[in-house]
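Worked example 2:
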Amino acid sequence: MGLELIIIIALAVIAVLGVIAIYNRFIILRNRADNAWAQIDVQLKRRYDLIPNLIETVKGYAAHEKEVFEKVTQARTQAIQAGGVGDQAKAENMLTQTLRSLFAVAEAYPELKANQNFMMLQEELSGTEGKIAYARQFYNDTVMKFNTKTQSFPSNIIASIFGFKEREYFEIEEISREPVEVKF
């Protein structure tokens, strides 16, 4: 009876340690995904901060393009107010499309394209777009690892017990996969 009890206790300890290890891995992946989202958020805020300056610069040369400015401003506001990852992705796709139309307006004004402030803002926006793409890739990679863990046996049982749910990817529309065109 003593040996059987020791074996049962040893198996119980191993099972508990396994649960703890899986749980801790979920915590690590969740925190990594949260941090990756925070990095995306930082870059999105930077993008939002650049847009009003860009609009004001373009307005100086193309004040009659009011509809384009309003669409960009509205898309920016929706992106700032977006809720979850899916809503944020939709809002960012819309903002990217409206920025494309803003740059299309700028193409019609050679003096604007030569403006130092406009060129600097374009360069900053282009750099920010690259950082957003990198942060999005890191976030999606982390989410893939987290989601794989929630779907794999036996960690899917632990995920269910402790309430770990699959996370959404931060996807962009096919048309938005190309960076906003920035020409000098």
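Residues 35-176 form a domain with the de novo design (two linked rop proteins) fold (CATH 1.20.1440.20). The chain has a mean pLDDT of 89.
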